[in-house]
Amino acid sequence: MEKPHTPVLLSEVLANLDPHPGERYLDLTAGYGGHASKILDVTQDYKNSVLVDRDEFAVNYLNQEFPSTTTMHSDFYSAMLQLLTRGETFDLILADFGVSSPQLDREERGFSFRYDSPLDMRMDRRQSLTAADIINHYSERELAEIFVKYGEEKKGTAAMFARIIVHHRPIKSTKQLADLIATRIHGYFRHHPATKVFQAIRIVVNDELGQIEQSLPLIPQLLRQHGRVGIITFHSLEDRLVKDFLREQTSLGEESPLTIINKKPIVADAQELVINPRARSAKLRVAKRN
Question: What is the pTM (predicted TM-score) of this model?
C-alpha cells in the first residue's frame, strides 16, 4: 500500500474546523486521508461522511483505509453537483487544492521535473488531455498566454519560453522540457526556472481554477447551519478566488450565508516547515454557515 503524504496545516485545520462527535464530514480532495483520518477520529461518523478524489490511486487507498465511509472517484465540482442533487448537507467541509506528495513522487505521473517522465500531469487519468498535448500542439501564442495567466510569468519570459518550446518540438519528457527552459536562463533563481511553466501546464490540464470557480458558490448549499468549511490553497491564483468569494459571501450583512472565522489566512509555523517544506506556500481560510 502506498505511503500517505503528510497533510499540511493539520493542527490548524482541526483547531479551526473544530469537529465534534456525530458531525458529518465532506472532504472534497481527500487524497490519502491525512486530514480525514484525524477529523473522523473526532466525529466518529464514518458511515455518513464522504471522501472525494479524482485520482484512482488515492481512491483505492481510501477504500481500504475507510471501508465504511462513502468514497467518490470524481473531481470535486462534479461530486458537489451529485451531492446537491441528492439533497445532502454536511457539518464540516474541507478542500485542499494542492497536488499530493504521491502524485509528485510517482515518476510516471509527470508532475515533477525531478524525473525524466512522460508529459502527463493528469490528476484523473480517465481524461484525455495531457501535458504533452498542450506542449506539442498549442500555438506559440497560446502557450505564452498560459504561462502568463496560470504561471504568473512575465510576458517577455513567457514569450521566450513558448518560442523555445515550439522550435524544439516534439518534446516527450518532463526533463527535456525543464532542461530546455533552464539552459536559456542564467543567474541565481530561488526555484527552478521551469517551476512556473510546470504550474501553468498542470493548472490547464486539470482545469484547476475552473473547478474552484464553479465549486465555491455551491459550498453554502452543502453546509448545514453552523457548519464550517476550510479551504487550503497553494498559490495566489487559487487564494484570490477563495478570498474574493468569501468576501462576497460575507458582505450582505444579516443576509450573508457565511461568516469568516479567520480574517487573515492561516499559514504553517516554523516547526511544520521543518517537517514538511511543501507547506511553505499553503494558506488556510475558514468560514461558518450562518
Answer: 0.91
